[in-house]
Structure formats: structure tokens, C-alpha cells
Amino acid sequence: MSVLLSGGMVTTATQSRLAAVRSTDGRIVEIGDLVPRPGEEVIDCSGCLVLPGGIETHSHLDLEAVGTVTADDFASGTRSALAGGTTTVLDFGTQFHGESLAEGLARWHDKARGQAVTDYGFHLAMTQWRPEFADEMAQIVAAGITSFKLYMAYRGSMMVEDDEIYAALSASSRLGATIGFHCENGLVIDALVREELARGHTGTFYHQRTRPPALEREAFGRLTTIAELLDAQHYIVHLSAGETIEEVRRARQRGSKVVAETCPQYLLLDDSLYGTPECDDLEARQYVMSPPLRAPENLDALWAGLADGDIQFVGTDHCSFNLKGQKDQAPDFARIPNGAPGIELRLALLYTYGVAAGRISPERFVAVTAENAARYFGLYPRKGTLLPGSDADIVVNDPKPSWTVRHDVLHDNVDHTPYEGRRIQGRVRDVFLRGHHVVADGVLAGDLAPGEFVPCGLPDSDIT
Ligand code: URP
Ligand code: ZN
Ligand code: ZN
């Protein structure tokens, strides 16, 4: 079965050109000045961008946390991703206390298998460090999971200490793997939280007051110093603060093997959404995520970092909890389930506020939403680009229509979106996953085939 996408602006991380793309049996076979073959399906893409399918670097689907579970599982979370033009999702599989790494990974395969409708891979988050993991990591890498995660925050549940970071990086670098880090100083945050609660300050406003940006910068600086001793590949997930970018830049100048991810929420939303010390509106609880939203001046710094190559990917950290029945249940700011949804709007927001607003080029848009992730997580050139031989994961984005985000048009399973009321320029018109036409004229197919597990290769931090 052959399909010809004709007349569109074919855009990759390195070039844009008017061309046609032919795919056959799930793979791209030709790109250029092509004429339709007899019997071939032809889709007119005039006036549209033809892009590689997006790669989501950061989701938490079907994650058990603080006595509850995320509103989105692999079925709803990946439907939502696909509707928004993301064809591959890299989710944080999680090893919980007491489990081996293999047990944690097996549970994540069980959650995703037959449920996911995008292709998918995993990072493996370790909620503790145990010395035997140094050997177990080799089996995980052999099974196609080449990126791990450690938390420098969440004391008492997931936080690891510096000697554990050293041991984990030492093991991962021997294997040529990488580790993503949640960079916040969990010990100091814990002290600040206890101080505020002791003063009777329970409102949502205090979430950001107890997690200042300096504690992200400090944690990242500490991490990268440890990693440099080992020449180990590492990356910072959900970078939120302008001052942390400066540290990343300095580290990369020193030759540190570090890359950085940020998220749409840190590019577009600011800390005014937490309200005032007095108010404790339910609305504000939707923005309780860690790291928290930052002061407005950080947003410009993040956009500049994205444009200049200091930040390599944009993932959403999609970690969805309902406002009603989940986020509203907590007695104080410190016990609100952390996280926000966003997986469906990643490309739309980046296109609108990045490309259409003139902050990043269309090629940079492809780099930060698809190609850099494919290269770093060893999926390139199968994913993340448009080349003969690549999977036919293709997005046709029509830049002309504009629309307003309303939660009820999204495909997730949570009860809100932090982007309610936002204007969006352009529309994901068509999506192909390995040649299957899964979104046609903006409508997600009702009958979706299961996605495939994609094993990741070893990371290549030589990306900008
Ligand atoms: O608040 C957040 N980000 N929740 C998800 C877990 C994490 O820290 O990535
Ligand atoms: Zn995190
Ligand atoms: Zn996360």
C-alpha cells in the first residue's frame, strides 16, 4: 500500500523544501519531485508543513503516586499524544522500592502492551539506589532501555544522595547509557516546607515559595560536577529556570556530556498562577508540579535557550491528576499530587508560540520536538526524521487555521488543561504512524492498532 503526500513543505531539523513523500508498507521510500503512480493514494499537502512524527521525551502514564494513580493510562495518554501529532512516547517506567529493575520494567511493559496506540519506549526511573543495580542496569540496557532517571528531590520517597548519584553514573557510563535527573535540592526544600507548614501556611502559593529556582540551579551544578568526574552522559529533565540554563551552558563549554529538556509549561506559564498567600483556589492546584512555574523573566530565557541550542528537547512531563477527586483531596500544598497534563498540545503550543511567533525556525521546531530525541535516545534515523528507510511517522500541519483550546476537544482522560483558552495557530491535519493514517482531516481514527515497543540505542550527546 503506497501513499504520496504531495505539494507540502517537507521540514526536518536541517532543511525545508517543497517535495513529495512516498511511503510504502509503513516506511518512507522516496522524497523529491515525484509523480503519482497508478492506484496510489495521493494526499494534497499544499500550503502545509510535512514533519516527522513528534517524539515525547517525558510522560508518566499509569503512574502510582501519593496513594493515587494518574488519570491517564497508556490507552488514553497515547490517544491524546497521537491526536496532537506525537507518534512515539518515551514514558518513565518506574522501579518502586523493593523491586528489582527487571521487575519495574516488566510492570511497565504490562501496562503499555496492547494499550498504547503510539509507538513507545521507556526510560527507567529508580526510586532508590541499591548497589546491585550497578549490575542489573546491564540487562536493562540490553533490553532497549538506555536511559535511567534519578530524583534529587522528593525526600523520603524517591530522593537519592550524592554518593548514590556517583555510583549510578559510574555504572551507566560503563554501559554507555545515560541518566536523566530531576534537579532540585530535596533536603532544603523539605526544610522550607516544614517551616511554612509550622507557620500555618498551607495554601498553594507556598508550593513555589518552598521550591525556589536557586535550588534547581544548585542541584544541577552538583550533578554535573559529579558527572564530569566520570565523563558520564547525563541530562536534566524539565529544566524550569533561566539561571539553570546558564549553568548548563557553562557545563557544556567545559565539555560536560550534558543535554537539557524543558517543557511547554515552563515556556508559557508563570508563577502568578499560584495566586496570593491568602487564596487557596482549586484552580491554582492544577499548576502544582515540580519544579514549579517560575517568575515571568524565566520564560524569555528558556525560549532563548531553546533557540540557541542550550536546550535540546521539549517534553511535556505529562503527569495528569484530576482537579476533582485527586488534587482537591490534599489538606495542604505539600500533599497535592504533583504534575500537569500536556501531551496532546506539545506540537501545537511549540508551533504557535515558537514558530508562528518567530522565536524558533521550523527546522529548530523539528529538532526539539523530534529529531534530537531520536538521536539522543538511539532511535535515529528510524524515528525523528523524514528519510528513505525511516518509519512513515508523518505529521501534516496546516498553519492557516487558528482555534482556542477547550479541554473538551482533547482526547486525554483528565478533567482540565492548563492551557484552557489559549489561542493556537495551525492545526495537526493528518498523522501517519508507520504508514497508518491515524488522524485524517483533524479527526482521530476510532479504530487504532496497538503501538509497537521501540528499543532505544545508546545515547549520543553530540546534539544541539
Ligand atoms: O510534578 C511533576 N513533575 N510530577 C511528575 C514527576 C516528576 O517529577 O517528573
Ligand atoms: Zn521530575
Ligand atoms: Zn516527570
Describe this structure in words.
With 464 residues, this protein is of the alpha/beta class. It has a single domain (52-376), classed as Metal-dependent hydrolases (TIM Barrel, Alpha-Beta Barrel). 30% of the residues lie in helices and 24% in strands. It contains 13 helices and 19 strands. Strands 1, 2, 3, 4, 5, 16, 17, 18 and 19 form a 9-stranded mixed β-sheet that branches. Helix 4 packs across helix 7 (213-230) and helix 7 (213-230) runs parallel beside helix 8 (242-253). The longest helix has 18 residues, at 213-230. It is globular and about 75 Å long. The chain starts with a strand and ends in a 20-residue tail after the last strand. The structure holds N-(aminocarbonyl)-beta-alanine and zinc ion (ZN) (2 copies).
Give the helix/strand layout.
Blueprint (H helix, E strand, L loop, with lengths): L1 E10 L4 E9 L2 E6 L8 E4 L4 E4 L1 E6 L4 E2 L2 E2 L4 H10 L2 E10 L5 H12 L6 E8 L6 H10 L4 E5 L10 H14 L2 E5 L3 H13 L6 H5 L3 H18 L3 E3 L5 H12 L4 E5 L1 H5 L13 H4 L11 H12 L4 E2 L31 H11 L5 H15 L17 E11 L18 E11 L2 E5 L2 E2 L20
Parallel strand pairs: 1-4, 1-5, 6-9, 9-10, 10-11, 11-12, 12-13, 13-14, 14-15
Antiparallel strand pairs: 1-2, 2-3, 5-16, 7-8, 16-17, 17-18, 18-19
Helix pairs in contact: 3-4, 4-7, 7-8
The site of one zinc ion (ZN) has 3 residues, from loops.
Could you say what the CATH architecture is? Alpha-Beta Barrel
Please estimate the helix content.
25-40%
- Contiguous low-pLDDT stretches (5 residues minimum) are none
Number of strands: 19
Whole-number mean pLDDT? 98
**What structural class is derived from the secondary structure elements?**
alpha/beta
CATH fold-level label: TIM Barrel
Total domains: 1
Q: State the fourth-level CATH superfamily.
A: Metal-dependent hydrolases
Separate helix tally = 13
Q: What shape does the CA trace take?
A: globular
CATH class: Alpha Beta
Please compute the radius of gyration using only Cα atoms: 21 Å
Q: What is the distance, rounded to the nearest whole angstrom, between the alpha carbons of the first and last residues?
A: 37 Å
The molecules bound to the chains, other than polymers, are: N-(aminocarbonyl)-beta-alanine, zinc ion
